[in-house]
C-alpha cells in the first residue's frame, strides 16, 4: 500500500515490518498519529473492517468517522491510554464490527509509536477475530463455564449468581475476573451478545423485528430498538436494509422504530 501521510515518517517502524503485516491474512494492522487519526493500515484492516475502496478514504480519519458512538468512545479512550500515558494494551478482548456489518469479538494489541528521539507520536496496533486467535482461548478457561452458560441461554434471564456458581467462584471474584478480561460487566456482555445474535438474524432471515428481539432475549421491542440504534447508529430495519437491499423495509414494525 502506498504510504500517503507525512506523519508516518516520524514513526520508527521499518518498511520491511510494514510489508510483513501486508502478507498476514487474518491480522489487521494499523498506525495512528498522536490525535488518534489513521495514517497507515494493511489490506485486512482496510477491506475487512472499514470496507473502503482506497486508502485516501481512510487516512486522516478517527474512530468516530468509522464506528457507532458506543464503540468509538471505547476505542478512543484506549488510544489515549497508549498515546498520552505510554501504556501498552496487550491482547485485549473487545467488540468490533466485521466486514459483514455485524458485531464480533476481536483481540487487539496497541503499543506507543515513537520517533527517533523516543517521543510518543502515535500508536501501532494489530487486531484479529477471536476465532482465529487460538492462543488467546486459554485465558477464558477460568470463566469458560459461565461463557458456555451465557451462549446457550442468552435468550433467557441470566443471574450473575448462577454464572459465578458455574465457575466455582464467589460473585465478587467472578465480577472482578470477568471485568478484567472483557472490560465490561456480565450484564453488558450479555446485552452485547444478544445484539450480536440479533445482527446475525436480521441479516439471515425475514422474521419480524419484534420476533427477533424476543428470540434474542429482549422482552421489550422498543427497548431493543433504542439499544440497537444507540450501539449501531442505525435502527434494526436500517441495518437489515443494508444487509439485504432487496428486502422490503416498509413493514409496520420498521416504520414504528424510534
Automatic annotation (TrEMBL):
Keyword set, alphabetical order: DNA-binding, Methyltransferase, Transcription, Transcription regulation, Transferase
Gene name as annotated: adaA
Disordered: annotated segments: 236-258
Signal sequence, start to end: none
EC number: 2.1.1.-
GO biological process: methylation
SMART domains with a match to the protein in the record: HTH_ARAC
A Pfam cross-reference name: PAS_4
Residue ranges occupied by any HTH araC/xylS-type domain in the UniProt entry: 144-242
SUPFAM superfamilies per record: Homeodomain-like, PYP-like sensor domain (PAS domain)
Basic and acidic residues compositional bias, start-end: 248-258
Domain of life according to the entry: Bacteria
Protein name: Bifunctional transcriptional activator/DNA repair enzyme AdaA
MF annotations from Gene Ontology: DNA-binding transcription factor activity; methyltransferase activity; sequence-specific DNA binding
Amino acid at each position: 500500500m502506498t504510504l500517503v501521510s507525512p506523519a508516518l515518517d516520524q514513526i520508527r517502524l521499518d518498511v520491511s515490518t510494514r510489508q510483513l503485516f501486508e502478507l498476514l491474512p487474518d491480522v489487521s494492522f494499523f498506525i495512528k498519529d498522536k490525535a488518534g487519526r489513521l495514517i497507515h493500515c494493511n489490506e485486512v484492516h482496510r477491506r475487512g473492517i472499514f470496507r473502503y475502496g482506497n486508502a485516501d478514504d481512510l487516512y486522516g480519519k478517527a474512530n468516530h468517522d468509522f464506528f457507532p458512538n458506543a464503540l468509538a468512545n471505547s476505542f478512543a479512550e484506549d488510544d489515549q491510554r497508549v498515546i498520552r500515558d505510554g501504556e501498552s494494551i496487550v491482547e485485549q478482548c473487545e467488540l468490533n464490527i466485521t466486514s459483514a456489518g455485524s458485531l464480533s469479538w476481536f483481540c487487539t494489541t496497541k503499543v506507543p509509536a515513537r520517533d527517533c528521539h523516543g517521543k510518543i507520536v502515535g500508536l501501532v496496533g494489530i487486531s484479529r477475530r477471536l476465532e482465529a486467535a487460538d492462543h488467546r482461548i486459554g485465558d477464558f478457561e477460568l470463566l469458560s463455564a459461565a461463557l458456555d452458560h451465557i451462549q446457550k441461554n442468552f435468550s433467557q434471564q441470566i443471574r450473575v449468581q448462577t454464572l459465578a456458581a458455574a465457575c466455582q467462584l464467589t460473585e465478587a471474584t467472578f465480577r472482578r475476573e470477568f471485568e478484567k478480561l472483557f472490560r465490561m460487566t456480565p450484564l453488558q456482555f450479555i446485552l452485547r451478545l444478544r445484539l450480536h445474535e440479533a445482527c446475525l438474524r436480521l441479516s439471515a432471515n425475514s422474521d419480524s423485528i419484534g420476533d427477533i428481539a424476543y428470540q434474542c432475549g429482549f422482552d421489550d421491542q422498543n427497548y431493543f430498538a433504542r439499544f440497537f440504534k444507540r450501539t449501531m447508529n442505525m435502527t434494526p430495519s436500517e441495518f437489515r436494509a443494508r444487509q439485504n437491499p432487496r428486502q422490503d423495509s416498509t413493514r409496520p414494525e420498521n416504520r414504528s422504530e424510534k
